[in-house]
């Protein structure tokens, strides 16, 4: 858009000069039509020159980033974009480049339109971008166009002082006492999930399940209860025509055409001008989803009385959902700049729902896959869980008991190191700066690959690709840095709900591992060590065509 306006401005200047200082062959009686044609010609030429400079001359001949290592086998005007789009997985090109230049803080590659992008490649570079100079960057507009219409300007997309304000207000939501108050919901839903699987096994106590839809359906109820205090599976619009679960499913598991439109919208904003049903249906689903959550907030505001909320919080160990906690906190900021508006509350709640759901479901799916592939790890994890239950005389494990299970903790972290649900994230420099002795101009796009950080042999050693939970008890060198593990990001923008997500996953795993044995399905045996084919392009780590895992009653 900036290039368009620049071309318009230059063309207006040229037209003005042409009118004031006509050449010898130019008459003073130039018609309006001829002036418009002249302006259009100037505009087309100026725009072409600007684009040629921006996408050809600058990145190839003038950019101060040209000296950085990176792939050079680019497609004309497309850079590495076709290769990234058609690779076997959304991570493959970046892991290959990192292995080729393991010590370089940044790897430069060209993307669509020869957009210069810096792949963050070392622990020190991650620390500089995420911590030391965090607020020298912003989330680029392309990310907001991909999912911002659902989440709004909550913690994920707020910037600078506004992000600091929101984080300050919301940080206490995920305190240890509040997580403990939410744990009965995790335990209850974990029990319901294990019973569902048990009821759907065959007469021999065995079955093969595509785990993504199984976990997704059940986790939607968990985040509904813990975030909004409602069963999202039963949540409908005021006119009863719209179902939250159905809208959510269509938004985050879209048709091929809807997904393509979303992808294109990240590059070129077409969402609000494309009058086809695949796009209009998506926009209706987003609108209705936000409307249903807004109505939940309004209804709770009408119900909640400050004195009663405080009384219930004190008598029950804390409110059992985040919406109640937010409204309670809102009372303390009444009339101040820290009082959250209704829209801000809706944005935060949808952020918690989406982040909590997608992170937990993805982690559970890949945890189940790993358990089925690795009998040693599965047996060791089950023994730790059963020993802990035996120490409680067969009773259920409390929040504190599960938090103390060291091997379970190591197992979950190892799953997230190798199979973190989020695939990529980006930052854009909002000013010129220097990172790891590299000058980064304003406007430069920086690319985080969560899996690059987790699979780097320079950080994790030659066995970085192997699943070894025990490594977490004996980390050395750069592996001890928090910036070697990026599943929840780091620094001021670290996910404030990471404790929530981890406890949710752990309580599910305790229920499942104690009752069932995971085994390889025929598809898994056919894949072998190569693993399942992965969906690409994708913003989450997902198996193409689903991930079928065997489950057997113990």
UniProtKB/TrEMBL annotation:
Chain residues that bind heme: 495
Keyword annotations from UniProtKB, A to Z: Heme, Iron, Metal-binding, Monooxygenase, Oxidoreductase, Signal
Signal peptide annotation: 1-18
Keyword Transit peptide in record: no
Record-linked InterPro entries: Cyt_P450 (IPR001128), Cyt_P450_CS (IPR017972), Cyt_P450_E_grp-I (IPR002401), Cyt_P450_sf (IPR036396), Cytochrome_P450_monoxygenase (IPR050121)
Cofactor(s), by name: heme
Family listed: Belongs to the cytochrome P450 family.
Protein name: Cytochrome P450 3A5
Organism: Schizothecium vesticola
């Amino acid at each position: 858009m900036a290039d368009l306006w620049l071309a318009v401005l230059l063309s207006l200047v040229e037209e003005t000069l042409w009118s004031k200082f006509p050449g010898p062959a130019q008459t003073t009686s130039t018609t309006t039509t001829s002036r418009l044609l002249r302006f259009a010609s100037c505009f087309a030429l100026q725009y072409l020159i600007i684009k040629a400079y921006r996408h050809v001359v600058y990145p190839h001949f003038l950019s101060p980033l040209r000296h950085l290592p990176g792939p050079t086998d680019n497609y004309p005007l497309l850079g590495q974009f076709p290769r990234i789009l058609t690779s076997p997985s959304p991570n493959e090109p970046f892991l290959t480049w990192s292995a080729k230049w393991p010590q370089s803080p940044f790897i430069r590659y060209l993307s669509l339109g020869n957009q210069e992008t810096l792949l963050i490649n070392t622990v020190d570079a991650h620390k500089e971008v995420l911590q030391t100079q965090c607020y020298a960057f912003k989330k680029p507009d392309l990310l907001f166009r991909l999912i911002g219409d659902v989440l709004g300007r909550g913690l994920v997309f707020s910037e600078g002082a506004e992000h600091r304000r929101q984080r300050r207000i919301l940080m206490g939501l995920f305190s240890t006492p509040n997580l403990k108050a939410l744990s009965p919901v995790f335990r209850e839903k974990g029990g319901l999930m294990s019973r569902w699987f048990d009821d759907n096994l065959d007469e021999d106590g065995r079955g093969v399940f595509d785990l993504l839809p199984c976990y997704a359906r059940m986790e939607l109820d968990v985040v509904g209860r813990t975030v909004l205090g409602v069963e999202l599976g039963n949540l409908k619009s005021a006119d009863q025509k719209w179902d939250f679960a159905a809208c959510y499913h269509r938004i985050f598991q879209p048709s091929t055409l809807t997904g393509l439109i979303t992808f294109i919208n990240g590059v070129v904003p077409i969402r609000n001008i494309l009058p086809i049903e695949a796009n209009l249906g998506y926009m209706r689903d987003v609108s209705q989803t936000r409307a249903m959550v807004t109505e939940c907030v309004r209804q709770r505001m009408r119900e909640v009385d400050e004195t009663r909320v405080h009384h219930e919080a004190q008598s029950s160990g804390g409110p059992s959902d985040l919406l109640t906690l937010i409204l309670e906190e809102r009372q303390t900021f009444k009339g101040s700049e820290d009082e959250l508006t209704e829209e801000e509350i809706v944005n935060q709640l949808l952020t918690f729902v989406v982040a909590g759901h997608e992170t937990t479901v993805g982690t559970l799916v890949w945890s189940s896959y790993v358990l089925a592939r690795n009998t040693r790890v599965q047996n060791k994890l089950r023994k730790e869980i059963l020993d802990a239950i035996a120490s409680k005389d067969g009773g259920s494990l409390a929040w504190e008991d599960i938090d103390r299970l060291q091997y379970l903790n190591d197992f979950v972290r190892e799953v997230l190191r190798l199979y973190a649900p989020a695939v990529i994230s980006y930052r854009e420099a909002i000013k010129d700066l220097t990172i790891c002795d590299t000058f980064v101009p304003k406007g430069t796009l920086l690319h985080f690959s969560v899996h690059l950080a987790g699979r780097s042999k320079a950080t994790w050693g030659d066995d970085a690709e192997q699943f070894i939970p025990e490594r977490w008890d004996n980390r050395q060198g750069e592996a001890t840095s928090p910036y070697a593990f990026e599943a929840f990001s780091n620094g001021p923008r670290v996910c404030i709900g990471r404790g929530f997500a981890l406890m949710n996953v752990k309580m599910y795993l305790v229920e499942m591992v104690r009752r069932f044995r995971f085994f390889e399905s025929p598809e898994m045996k056919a894949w072998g060590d190569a693993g399942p084919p992965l969906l690409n392009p994708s913003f989450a780590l997902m198996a193409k065509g689903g991930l079928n895992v065997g489950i057997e009653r113990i």
